[in-house]
Amino acid sequence: MDQVVLSAGDTAWVLASSALVLLMTPGLAFFYGGMVRAKSALNMMMMSMVTIGVVSVLWVIYGFKLAFGYEANSQWYGSFSLSGLGDVVNELTNNGGVYPIPLLVFAAFQLMFAVITPALISGAIADRTKFVSWIVFVAIWVTVVYFPVAHWVFAFGNKEGDTVTGAGFLASRGVQDFAGGTAVHINAGAAALALAIVLGRRIGWQKSPMRPHSLPLVLLGAGLLWFGWFGFNAGSALGANNIAGLAFINTQVATAGALLGWILTEKMRDGHPTTLGAASGAVAGLVAITPACAFVAPWAAAVIGFIAGVICALAVGLKYKLGYDDALDVVGVHLVGGIVGSLAIGFFGSSAVNSLGLDGIFYGGGTALLGKQALGVVLVFAYSFVATLIIGYLIEKTIGFRVQSEKELIGVDQTEHAESAYELGGILKGGR
Amino acid sequence: MDQVVLSAGDTAWVLASSALVLLMTPGLAFFYGGMVRAKSALNMMMMSMVTIGVVSVLWVIYGFKLAFGYEANSQWYGSFSLSGLGDVVNELTNNGGVYPIPLLVFAAFQLMFAVITPALISGAIADRTKFVSWIVFVAIWVTVVYFPVAHWVFAFGNKEGDTVTGAGFLASRGVQDFAGGTAVHINAGAAALALAIVLGRRIGWQKSPMRPHSLPLVLLGAGLLWFGWFGFNAGSALGANNIAGLAFINTQVATAGALLGWILTEKMRDGHPTTLGAASGAVAGLVAITPACAFVAPWAAAVIGFIAGVICALAVGLKYKLGYDDALDVVGVHLVGGIVGSLAIGFFGSSAVNSLGLDGIFYGGGTALLGKQALGVVLVFAYSFVATLIIGYLIEKTIGFRVQSEKELIGVDQTEHAESAYELGGILKGGR
Amino acid sequence: MDQVVLSAGDTAWVLASSALVLLMTPGLAFFYGGMVRAKSALNMMMMSMVTIGVVSVLWVIYGFKLAFGYEANSQWYGSFSLSGLGDVVNELTNNGGVYPIPLLVFAAFQLMFAVITPALISGAIADRTKFVSWIVFVAIWVTVVYFPVAHWVFAFGNKEGDTVTGAGFLASRGVQDFAGGTAVHINAGAAALALAIVLGRRIGWQKSPMRPHSLPLVLLGAGLLWFGWFGFNAGSALGANNIAGLAFINTQVATAGALLGWILTEKMRDGHPTTLGAASGAVAGLVAITPACAFVAPWAAAVIGFIAGVICALAVGLKYKLGYDDALDVVGVHLVGGIVGSLAIGFFGSSAVNSLGLDGIFYGGGTALLGKQALGVVLVFAYSFVATLIIGYLIEKTIGFRVQSEKELIGVDQTEHAESAYELGGILKGGR
Amino acid sequence: MKLITAIIKPGKFDEVKTALRNAGVKGMTVSEVSGVGRQGGHVEVYRGAEYPIDLIQKVRLEILAEDKEVDALIDVIVKTASTGSIGDGKVWTTSVENVVRVRTGEKGETAI
Amino acid sequence: MKLITAIIKPGKFDEVKTALRNAGVKGMTVSEVSGVGRQGGHVEVYRGAEYPIDLIQKVRLEILAEDKEVDALIDVIVKTASTGSIGDGKVWTTSVENVVRVRTGEKGETAI
Amino acid sequence: MKLITAIIKPGKFDEVKTALRNAGVKGMTVSEVSGVGRQGGHVEVYRGAEYPIDLIQKVRLEILAEDKEVDALIDVIVKTASTGSIGDGKVWTTSVENVVRVRTGEKGETAI
Ligand SMILES: Nc1ncnc2c1ncn2[C@@H]1O[C@H](COP(=O)(O)OP(=O)(O)O)[C@@H](O)[C@H]1O
Ligand SMILES: Nc1ncnc2c1ncn2[C@@H]1O[C@H](COP(=O)(O)OP(=O)(O)O)[C@@H](O)[C@H]1O
Ligand SMILES: Nc1ncnc2c1ncn2[C@@H]1O[C@H](COP(=O)(O)OP(=O)(O)O)[C@@H](O)[C@H]1O
After folding, report:
1. Mean pLDDT of the region C350-376
2. Chain C residues close to D30, C-beta within 8 Å
3. Has the ipTM of the complex gone over 0.90?
4. What is the DSSP string of F23-72?
5. Largest Cα–Cα distance of chain A, in whole Å?
6. Are C166 and C70 in contact (CB under 8 A)?
7. How far apart are CA E13 and CA E20, in angstroms?
């Protein structure tokens, strides 16, 4: 750790970024919560909130080491040991090189990623999930799926003297994923598909209307997600530098492009550009640019965003064809958007904007990069889908994952939480 | 670019500020959205959201160069060329001097200003605007009005060797506008007045009540605006330094003063201090301190805020006298507040707090500064008002700017977006 | 001020933190506003909003000097003089040592603490407070209680040459309170208890149900508080450094632990984990870790949070036993949480994580530290409680503190502010 | 005594209320209802999925009236609320056996 | 059988409900309505513009009752709901031809 | 002419609406109400304090019908809305003296 000394500037940005990424999970709660019917809005939001609780505590016990330890020198996981964060207060971050920010700041930043990933999944199983089973699921899932996969993608290993030990296997194979297109979005999207299958369709699906109970709440969620995502993407530079600047502006223009792409698709297909479409498009753009934000030029980011907006707008209809009830389109937005973004690097990647990047097909780099990217996509999808299917069925067969149908009809807010979201009438609704 | 090297600390603050300023536009969406009736809340918010989309994409294509290029060596506009942001990833900001932050960070920060300015206008034409026409308007308006005016005010030019080229004409004439009192608020306010005239009064204006459908939403918007405005104002220092500190605390105390000024006016005139008044006062204070925040002492900021709160609280009534339906008082708050703040520098300006500032009347600087400020106010107002009137009528005469009256009565959420904001009843409202 | 020069990185983080802490007060407004009935939601939020106005203006007049002046060389208060912030634009912060951030940034950061502390109190007196009297109360209370107590705890004095002058008496006695467990939370909680006694019970208390009118609003508030609290705690390091990193991650895991602790208690006692419980637990955890965040290891933070979650969940029931109507449980959450956190340092404090800290009982430091902590707790509680009781009764006896019972029944939104929060029906509710 | 119940379009409510006041009506009870009828609804679209909304917002008025006023009041309502387009609503009357004013306990026509 | 309809002040609803239960009423149907009447409304002010609100929140009760209970129940409602101030509301009765319990198909008084 | 009033469970509303349409009903007026009855409520808990909620959401239908249709329509409602569990609701009929269509001024059965 010789030369590198703590940089207050870099640390300031990663601290701010960590706070921004934390805000994304409440943001997600509102984004999802507004989309469900009023009778299950609280449950939807509680799934996100409790995920913050569970994952943060596991992280400080063993999660950080399981994801970012290097002692086992494994490419599949970090190390089985206590995180021991109290002992490293004065250490700098060491991940394939030493960064001038405190290790605890890196640990906090990465924790926020570990929090939001399982929370993303919850959208697929809206309206019908046993709350206790969700807690159990989250604890198992982050341990078996997220922490290892984060190691594959984000662990560049610990540099001890001249050697690097404990790099993740996708990271060391050069799969490019700047801020989590694979580890976060494809991972969560694949798990969402698995759980939608495990829990089955909601009563009345495709028969009775299940429209968003509050679009302002959805928009609030989308706004907070957009805001927080600057921390997610530009913070992943782990410093306040040129790459952070590139990631920042790319995040903005890709999101803008996707917003336009989605509502244009709607205008042409359904006749009206919608608020839900604008919010969804923004999120699709944010997802798609996540892996690519530091590897492409801004014009390419706008194009990638636009493409993601169009494709995701079309993809959300798939579930009706295929018959799985992914209630809030986690698959259509996060899985599909994550794939679009991860593969887009293979086309738009440019070493001119980032010396650590590679040239994609459009920059004369050939198909090698695209191949690597496809590898990352397939492996993360496959592992997450299969593992989640197993975890999901185990829970379903033991403690049960889905509420009884009577409770589903009454609404999970009342049955799982003994609450109702609104009491506006004041006199009667939910009052005496 | 010899000596200056990238400062992570300054970059960290401008990155954070850029995220803060982005958040202001969703914040504005909630502020405006809560103020309209439930039947047009989504449309109101969509006008802000789509503005983010359109302006961000134009910015990355040509907007940045049109506003901040210097190649044309014009004081009226930057240059007609592609923005080419992918080529300048490793360059520092150069705007009348070299700043130790990446050019892309400056580009991202300024983009957020270009986004919110047209969004501000939308409040004037609530409840009756064709959504597609709004999109067309935004694209034309930023190109013809905002990008050039930003050049006038914010472009201090590019320093090449010993010479500076491409400084804006207000900037180079010493009009003081730290964060956009003229370029943003007077500009938007003048355009709002023009569009209110072009679109005409809403059906039932001054007859049927049009009261805010959700004051908590208004307050949420005001809160996010206040929060984001620290980035807007203190971020305009383009670094984490003494001037940023001054701008920051001035922003806080001016806003506080204006909040008090507005509700005191209400208490005396109407008998009750209101929530809408507190929220409006805060925004009026933020507007007024925007140009002045780095040029006055904190006590003066509080006074300027208080004055702006009182004057704007009185000014919002003007529309009833003059007969234009500026639905959400963009004129009364942004135009009037922007004028108050811009002129206030002529009185309260103090070179003691900022060596780049000048002394105003109260500090013995005479009326010279006030004269310059008045020049800036008048020119920006005149250009924006006339240009917007022309653009507005062109759109009205061609594709139409206002929805049919039947659609206005039903509500633009349903007719323009095929959605409704809330479905709380769950059983009936907007449900089957 | 010899060696120390302004650090842009440290300044960037404290600027960002100041903005984050400002956001906490609107966040608090939503947290509280959602918890009351719809008929007094606006009044609840207005109490927070107007507090920002009043305290900010007083701060810039004399508050900053009263709290952080050193000229009087008193351990009880700063100095009686104008704040004169316009004269110190280029000075660095000097508080028991020179910090490389502008004095104005420190002043802005501390202002946000002075704002939120009285706002916290308002939850105790929901639904029944005269708005004008609240304004008067805030002005007196910050002057007589907050500014001095902040001096006791946060003023480490001004270093002039070799001597330090004007350190607060708890600060100089080594009471450990990193970010305000005593000065902010115990202080506000004690005042809340006093005011709940002064104003008396609401009509229908414990008879008619008074349930939260909007839990999504409560959750929004909790989310913004959590987000902003990173600035509150990690910003209190006054720089972007290792201690900030420790404070940051401790804030996260303690909050997570408390969220789990609260809903677990609910599950066991009432049968259901609730959304209100999760939100309340998070806030309880944030409160408890506030004094301790830079003095304990992350595992200990999680434990402290969990304990605070459980104890506060039990403590909110106390008011029914003791018969005071602390409407939104300011006592149960802030007073009790603040005590838990302040005393916890006596057990979990570890000099290994922070060289400025001391070892608590579990680290072999004996009971000395616990004794000091108890001293801080008792003194702040006693002073705040007694002083607030006196101020409260004075106001009650002169201008009256509580609205007439008829107004209370109608709802203070209508009677105090001539507004109503929602107009969703659009046709009838609150419409013509 | 009679109870006149009227279902009208929300946009007409203000005018009808004023017209009834002018016609001497002292009070009425109003509620928000949804109507199904010949008038078509509209379609909302969420993420491409269409939701036909066939319930249309209406306002229901209930007016207690003396027998002799009834026809005149119905006329006032019909005239004021009519726009000539489908969905203008219905007015109907039922016979009321007794009316009591809660405040005073008065019964019959004086209680109206 | 009769249908008793009562318009009362929201703040009195709890008491009336309890009193009716004590008087042997097994069920009722409740809705939120707005009343126009002698009771004045209030004024709200938004950015200096005044909005007179003349609709006042009320609660409507509908109670199906056997003929012989009706007078007693009206008495209970009037007594419990009265505050003596303007706006206490109205109670009226209409004749019901038939009542059916959906669950069982029972008809007439046993269906109440 | 008659007015059929039906209180049913919200979850049954769609089916009942469709069944009535199939039975030839052209229109109806629908409102959200709360019911008190034999069906128990539920308890909500906020910070440990319990709030018993004994009002249960129901839907009220009002259908104007010709005398001869009434029995058939009641049958349709009862059959469709019944789940066999407590709280399925009530249907009752009252006699209507006159109906007017606002749009045209038509009176009597043709106005329905
Ligand atoms: N048979 C009916 N019973 C009760 N209400 C009805 C009936 N038919 C119509 N309505 C009410 O009258 C409203 C207008 O009816 P509709 O058939 O749409 O138009 P119109 O009365 O102009 O022919 C409906 O929305 C509904 O509220
Ligand atoms: N003619 C009427 N028809 C129907 N409802 C009425 C009528 N007059 C009054 N009401 C209802 O009774 C309520 C109380 O009436 P109001 O005239 O204000 O007071 P009071 O009954 O004490 O004289 C009104 O708000 C309204 O809901
Ligand atoms: N006496 C009554 N008058 C008016 N409405 C009633 C009456 N009794 C019941 N209801 C309505 O019918 C609904 C169902 O009644 P309930 O007694 O719970 O079940 P059931 O009708 O199956 O015996 C209630 O929620 C209420 O809306």
Report:
1. 96
2. 428
3. yes
4. TT---EEEEEEEEESSS--EEEEETTEEEEE--EEEEEEEEEE-GGGHHH
5. 72
6. yes
7. 11
Q: In sequence order, what are the residues at sequence separation of 6 or more whose Cβ sits closer than 8 angstroms to the Cβ of residue C125?
A: C134, C192, C195, C196, C199, C327
Chain C: residue whose CA lies nearest to E34: C428
Beta strands at E56-65 and E28-36: parallel, antiparallel or unpaired: antiparallel
What token pair was written down for C169? Answer: 């008496």
Q: Give the residue extent of every domain in chain A.
A: 8-427
Q: Which of C219, C307, C186, C329 is nearest to C258 (CA)?
A: C307
pLDDT digit string (tens) for A215-236? 999 999 999 999 999 999 999 9
Distance from C-alpha of A86 to C-alpha of E67, rounded to nearest angstrom: 78
Q: How far, in Å, CA of D96 to CA of B334, rounded?
A: 58
**Whole-angstrom distance, CA of residue C64 vs CA of residue C48:** 20
Summarize the confidence of residues F71-89 as an average pLDDT. Answer: 95
Superfamily of domain A8-427: Ammonium transporter AmtB like domains (1.10.3430.10)
Ligand 2 geometric centre to CA of E86 (Å): 9
Longest C-alpha distance within chain B, in Å? 72
Report the alpha-carbon angle C279-C302-C320, nearest 5.
45
pLDDT tens digits, residue range B59-100?
999 999 999 999 999 999 999 999 999 999 999 999 999 999
Residue A15 near residue A105 (C-beta atoms within 8 A): yes
Predicted structure pTM score: 0.97
Contacts of D13 in chain C (CB under 8 A): 427-428, 432
Residues with CB under 6 A from ligand 2: D 26-29, 62-64, 101, 103, 112; E 7, 35-39, 56, 58, 86-90
Closest CB to C424: pick one of B7, B213, B242. Answer: B213
Kindly report the nearest CA distance between residue A265 and chain D, in angstroms. Answer: 10
Q: What are D93's strand-pairing partners?
A: D4, F98
Distance CA F61, CA F48 (A): 38
Residue B210: how many other CB atoms lie within 10 Å? 23
Q: Is B220 on the interface with A (CB under 8 A)?
A: yes
- Where residue C425 falls among pLDDT bands split at 50, 70, 90? low
Four-residue CA torsion sign, A273, A274, A275, A279: negative
Is the Cβ pair B274, E45 closer than 8 Å? yes
Q: Name the residue with the closest Cα to ligand 1, atom 5.
A: F28
> Which pair of structure tokens corresponds to residue A379?
């492996």
DSSP B402: B
Contact: F54, A432; criterion CB under 8 Å: yes
Question: By CA distance, what is D15's nearest residue in B?
Answer: B208
Give the position, in ligand 1's atom list, of the atom nearest the Cα of F103: 22
Q: Is the Cβ of C145 closer than 8 Å to some Cβ of chain A?
A: no
Chain F partners within 8 Å of A428 (Cβ)? 34, 55
Closest Cα to atom 9 of ligand 2: D27
Report how far apart, in Å, the C-alpha atoms of B343 and of each of B66, B307, B310, C279 are. 28, 12, 16, 46
Beta carbons of C191 and C117 less than 8 angstroms apart: no
Residue B425: pLDDT band with limits 50, 70, 90: low
How far is C-alpha E50 from the chain's CA centre? Answer: 31
Residue D52 bridge partners (DSSP): D43
Q: Which two tokens stand for residue C413?
A: 């939104």
